[in-house]
Amino acid sequence: MKILVFGQLTDIFGDSFVRMRDIPDTDTMVKRLEENYPALKKMKYLIAIDKEIVRENTLLSESCEISLLPPFSGG
Amino acid sequence: MKHTLKNIFQHGAIPASFVGDSIAKHSSKTGIGAHSIFLGQVRADDVDGKKVTAIEYTAYEDMALKKMHEIREEIFARYPITCMHVHHSLGKVQTGEICLFVFTSSPHRKAATEACNELVERIKEELPVWGKELFTDEGYRWKINH
């Protein structure tokens, strides 16, 4: 599964995406990401699935477009 | 049928001539009585003695265009405006250059100004766009919107 990351999160992941296997839902994803990238725990971000922000634990499938969005700072 | 969303992004700064041309294009729309324009300019902030020289913008473009489409529909539904144009820079924009151009037009001034203000606020709050403030010494800081 490919997770897109943006803004200051690219500093933590060192890239614009991170790959993970076998993640059933967003809570598991966050837990596993935080294990591998402890700096993520201190970051503020939202999770979007297929370009929509999700605020509760959400089931994931291989076809989902997952992204981690730190606070927006456009304009 | 695949629906193509209107693009708002352009690479680099928005030239002043582009703004002028956009205004000129509306001269044939004689039902318009008022234009409201917001221009965002990159500010040379001083951060702990380091000066911002440019902002480098990145975006989750697909999501930003989808969100912008929703915002556009809502603004058109709420205000009696004739047209609405939004242009946002991606990539590097130097201090003093324009990075955001929001342009609304209506028969009477109130709708144009209110729609323009709301658009600017929502663009800053809701579009997945990020600014990286670049310093003279090659360091950087991620921009925070207030």
Automatic annotation (TrEMBL), chain A:
Coiled coil segments of this chain:
none
Known InterPro entries for this protein? Beta-grasp_dom_sf, Mopterin_synth/thiamin_S_b, ThiS/MoaD-like
Provide the transmembrane region boundaries: none
Q: What is this protein called?
A: Molybdopterin synthase sulfur carrier subunit
* Source species of the chain: Sinomicrobium oceani
From TrEMBL, chain B:
Q: Which InterPro entries match?
A: MoaE_sf, Mopterin_biosynth_MoaE
Keyword Nucleotide-binding in annotation: no
**Record's superkingdom?**
Bacteria
Q: Which EC class is this protein assigned?
A: transferase
GO BP annotations, alphabetical order: Mo-molybdopterin cofactor biosynthetic process
Name the catalysed reactions.
2 [molybdopterin-synthase sulfur-carrier protein]-C-terminal-Gly-aminoethanethioate + cyclic pyranopterin phosphate + H2O = molybdopterin + 2 [molybdopterin-synthase sulfur-carrier protein]-C-terminal Gly-Gly + 2 H(+)
**What keywords were assigned to this record?**
Molybdenum cofactor biosynthesis
Q: Give its E.C. classification number.
A: 2.8.1.12
The record's section on Pfam families has: MoaE
* Pathway stated in the Swiss-Prot or TrEMBL entry: Cofactor biosynthesis; molybdopterin biosynthesis
A GO term, aspect molecular function: molybdopterin synthase activity
| Cross-referenced PANTHER family | MOLYBDOPTERIN SYNTHASE RELATED
Assembly and oligomerization: Heterotetramer of 2 MoaD subunits and 2 MoaE subunits. Also stable as homodimer. The enzyme changes between these two forms during catalysis.
Q: Which family does it belong to?
A: Belongs to the MoaE family.
Protein name stated in the entry: Molybdopterin synthase catalytic subunit
What organism does the record attribute this protein to? Sinomicrobium oceani
Q: What is the lineage of its organism?
A: Bacteria, Pseudomonadati, Bacteroidota, Flavobacteriia, Flavobacteriales
